[in-house]
Design a protein that fits this description.
280 residues, Rossmann fold, seven-stranded mixed sheet, 44% helix, alpha/beta, globular, 7 strands
Length: 280
Amino acid sequence: MTIPDASKTARGVALLRAAHRIIDDQPPLLDDSIIGRLLGADTEQRIRDQEEQLQTPVMRGLRSHVLLRGRFAEDALAHAVTVGIRQYIVLGAGLDTFAYRQPAWASRVAIVEVDQPATQKAKRAALAAAEISVPSNVRYADIDFERETLAAGLERCGVAMDAPSFFSWLGVTVYLTRDAIEAVSRTVASFPSGSTMVLTFTQPRGEGDRARAELAEGAEAVGEPWLSYFTPDEIEALLRDAGFSSVAFLERKDAMLRYYAGRPDGLVAPRHVSIVSATV
């Protein structure tokens, strides 16, 4: 199945989440039980047909990054809910499936998926085709950033701008200009104290960093070039300038201890720090 109007990189990331349940060992790092259904009945066969390619070092590394960022964000959301946050905003939701496999504790959280109108229309059609129901606590904010700002779009879509909120912004910043990243960060930082955002960023490529060069070349080949790179110091400065009071990175050693210890399939945390949590 091809979901029209979904970016090719978004479909690729979704396929990696589906592949994890099929070709990697238990326990799953991120157990996405919905994505296979969303991608279509032939998903498992397509993954089996590509298994050799999916087990190359580059694809294993990318898969690990995709799984880790999703798991870390969902764990951080679970903690935020324990301290009273009741609004979860997924920026650039794409084919994210948390809302459709949400645990019981999330039922008291308003989940808002933010994306371009065409992308959301295609996703909702795919959900309907797969007979995946939309929970009552889920809403969609269809925002065309060529026509309105994130703040205006959220307000138009009924998002509570005065409520402490949790944001995830995964796998997006590398495709945006610095100005766009700063604008979104300022909007999120305008939410009340205690609001938190987990986001990913891409560090500049070093000499001989062939793996990331291959990924960047692949994204450019499908019309989705990488535009923005940051060192940890640079992304921290941007976030603090936007108005966040604390910024914390998921360090590789911590990820290895927390998520990868004892894995029989040999998946390991990515070498480069790329996941950061920022709190207002």
